[in-house]
Structures are given as C-alpha cells and as structure tokens.
Design brief:
It is built from one helix and eleven strands, in the order H-E-E-E-E-E-E-E-E-E-E-E. It has 113 residues and is mostly beta strands. The protein has a six-stranded antiparallel β-sheet, with no helix packed on it. The termini are far apart. The model has no long low-confidence stretch (mean pLDDT 90).
C-alpha cells in the first residue's frame, strides 16, 4: 500500500510564516534562516540556497522545505547522511524543537503552531 503524499492543491500552498532553522553550534552559530519556500538546499557548494563553508557537509547535503501540508528535511544523497534527533533519515516530517545534524553542523527547527 502506497503512502499518500500531499495533494496537488496543497503543493501550491505557501509555507506558514514563522518557520525558522537556527544554527546551534560552530562558526555559523546563531544564524537564523526562514523556511519560507517549498525547498531550501543546504550545502557547501555555491549552488546551494544556503551555502555554508563547512567541510563536513556535502555540496548539496539536504533540503528543508514545505510540501503544502508539512515541513520536512530530506537528505540529498550526502556522504555522511542527515540525522534528526540522532536518527539517520532520508526524508523526515519536522516538528518544532527537532534537531537536524549534517556532519558537524547542528540546526534547530522552530515551527509555527
């Protein structure tokens, strides 16, 4: 049985305002990024939407986004993987206070109610 994804109508909804990703440690500690579109690619490559000079993450490591119904993080085939609250994930529905780890980079998530 296939798991149903978001409907076509919901895919076109804009993310609710107030969703933030906050870098919790390292050189970029305190950096806040609004999750304000369908997909934000995080990586160390110049083509990433959020390009961070962090040697332990891939050029296009993971994406944060909104699928019309839920916020998510998705690993983009990174070398070291993406963890949420310590568990390796390929795609994960986010909730407020989740912690995402990509290499040495730790990112907290704050989502609207």
């Amino acid at each position: 049985m296939a798991i149903a994804g978001p409907s076509e109508e919901s895919k076109h909804r804009r993310p609710p305002s107030g969703a933030m990703a906050i870098v919790l440690s390292g050189f970029y500690e305190g950096l806040e990024v609004a999750i304000d579109r369908d997909r934000i690619v995080i990586g160390r490559g110049r083509k990433a939407d959020l390009a961070l000079a962090e040697a332990t993450i891939s050029r296009a490591h993971a994406a944060l986004g909104f699928d019309g119904e839920r916020f998510f993080v998705e690993d983009l085939g990174s070398t070291n993987g993406t963890l949420v609250n310590g568990a390796k994930v390929s795609r994960h529905v986010l909730k407020s206070e989740d912690e995402i780890q990509m290499g040495k980079l730790r990112i907290g998530v704050s989502l609207p109610d």
